[in-house]
Amino acid sequence: MRIVLASNNPDKLREVREILSGTDIEILSQREAGIHTEPEETGTTFEENARIKALAAMRASGLPAVSDDSGICINALGSCPGVFSSRFLAELSYPEKCQRIMELLEGIHDRGAHYTAAAVMVFPDGREITAEGIAEGEIAHEARGEGGFGYDPIFYLPEYGKTMAEISEDEKNALSHRGKAFRALASKLCEERN
Ligand code: IMP
Fold it and tell me: Which residues are catalytic?
């Protein structure tokens, strides 16, 4: 089954393809599906934004589409940047954003944070399947690791003693918000078909 991933983020594309590699779902990039537009993310929740992106990709391609809207929620910042994670401190690079977050948390005891991903799959006949995944962690005191992307070098996993950027891609996909959301989505799709 061919499904367009409504994202222009190559890191997400790689992760989602790997997460779904054991299924019969073939993920097409927006480029492969001939989609060159990106809708404005006007929703207030991860699920709303995921739906906006999936519907836009489905309408542009005529194919089923799936989208991931995700972000990092930091306890001490009132769960920010949350749905604004990709737009947060837009003028800075990710290493600079990570540095800024660590500065904002200096002297703060609660370093708890989580990643959330909402996955929404839509079909031309109007059907929709949704799933959510959460990965718990802490904001590290220093950025470490080269793997993953975005905020991964400062997303510390106490049970591993490592950041999300220091574990392997397979380990990240096994525990990540995106891994959980897309595996749940694939199993709901499978139930629907049986
Ligand atoms: P979206 O493309 O609008 O869903 O934005 C997601 C943003 O959340 C990314 O650009 C990153 O800033 C952040 N994010 C989501 N998932 C991850 C992850 O697995 N690692 C690091 N940052 C992430």
Answer: 69
Distance of CA 63 to the CA centre of its chain: 21
> What would the pLDDT profile of 111-140 be if each residue is shown by its tens digit?
999 999 999 999 999 999 999 999 999 999
Q: Tell me the CA–centroid distance for residue 164 and ligand 1, in Å.
A: 13
Task: Give the chain's end-to-end CA distance (angstroms, integer).
Answer: 15
Which pTM does this prediction carry? 0.96
Is the CB of residue 114 less than 8 Å from the CB of residue 141? Answer: no
**Region label for 99, one of left (φ > 0), alpha (ψ between -120 and 50) or beta (otherwise):** alpha
Please give the single-letter amino acid code of residue 127: R
> pLDDT value at position 37?
82
Query: If you average pLDDT over every residue of the chain, what do you get?
Result: 96
Taking the C-alpha atoms of residue 68 and residue 130, their distance in angstroms, rounded to an integer, is 10
Q: Which two tokens stand for residue 84?
A: 């604004």
- DSSP one-letter code for 166: T
Region 73-80: mean pLDDT is 97
Cβ of 85 below 6 Å from ligand 1: yes
